[in-house]
Amino acid sequence: MLLTLGLSMIIGLLLGLLGGGGSILTVPMLVYLLHVDPKTAITTSFVVVGVSSLLALIPHARRHSVCWKSGVFFGLSGMMGAFAGGRLAVHFTSDLLMTLFALISLSTGLLMLRGGKSSTDASPTGIPRRVCPLRVPYLRVLFDGFFVGGLTGMVGVGGGFLIVPALTLLVGLPMQGAIGTSLLIIVMNALAGLGGYSQHATLDLPLTALVTTGALIGSGMGALLSGYIKPNWLRRGFGLMVAAVGFYVLSQAFTAQLLLDAEAWFDRAHSEIWATLVLLTVLILLRIGSWIHKADAVVLKPQSGSNGH
């Protein structure tokens, strides 16, 4: 019990500090340390991370580091994607879901480590940049939100470990704005993902209450500390944490049984037709995403007033 509470506080601390990473640790903790069924762990993570994010959002909102318009549109689109992802997950085995979880974690962590200098730095004129864009790039926000929401709904996370990179690298928000805004989006995605999973997974109420209590304590502390740490340090710490967790989960989930499960799954899905459809869908989405990101630019100019748009 004390171990569970202590680990839950660490999860909450990272969630409040980095704007994500809570469920990327909650799911492995429940599965590999407490031996909870993966789908039950995923359902539990939605509750824990959703409630913790709501508490951690308050200090960020007081510092005007939440981009409400971008967050609401990204979150609404992400909710639809998360619900669809949660429903789609019923067709995959637990090991396949955990492997997908690990691969997404690894690629996201490496992408954050390779990211350039944070846009929260001063502009060339020496004037601090705005935290939120002057004009919300609605098309790219909606597209990115649905795509990220679908992935997070499948692997059972509130989405901060994907939302923060998406907001910084795709939508164009600086790190501080991405962290605050991601907390708002995580709450929305967690609600939608829980709705999708509720039809085919159970919830351990005593365990959920214990983990949520620890996460709430940690998230409040993390949200307060985040205002005193450099954005570039947050980015690097976030990338390292996500990549390390992804590597660990992959080492645990990638087994001979997983290969047999994957082969059986493809056989049932008529692999040739299925693979062709998946490939075409991915190529079409990539093309549409590329066009949207070129057409709908982000405008971040030196601040002259309030940041909270």
UniProtKB/TrEMBL annotation:
Q: Report if keyword Transmembrane is assigned.
A: yes
Family statement drawn from the similarity comment of this UniProt entry: Belongs to the 4-toluene sulfonate uptake permease (TSUP) (TC 2.A.102) family.
Which InterPro entries does this entry report, sorted A to Z? TM_pro_TauE-like (IPR002781), TSUP/Inactive_protease-like (IPR051598)
Record's superkingdom? Bacteria
Q: State the Pfam families in the record.
A: TauE
UniProt-annotated location(s): Cell membrane; Membrane
Residue spans crossing the bilayer: 7-34, 40-58, 70-90, 145-171, 177-197, 209-229, 241-260, 272-292
Bilayer topology: Multi-pass membrane protein
User: Which keywords fit this entry according to its UniProt record?
Assistant: Cell membrane, Membrane, Transmembrane, Transmembrane helix
From which organism does this entry originate? Methylomonas rapida
| Keyword Membrane attached | yes
User: Where does the record locate the signal sequence feature?
Assistant: none
Name by which UniProt lists this protein: Probable membrane transporter protein
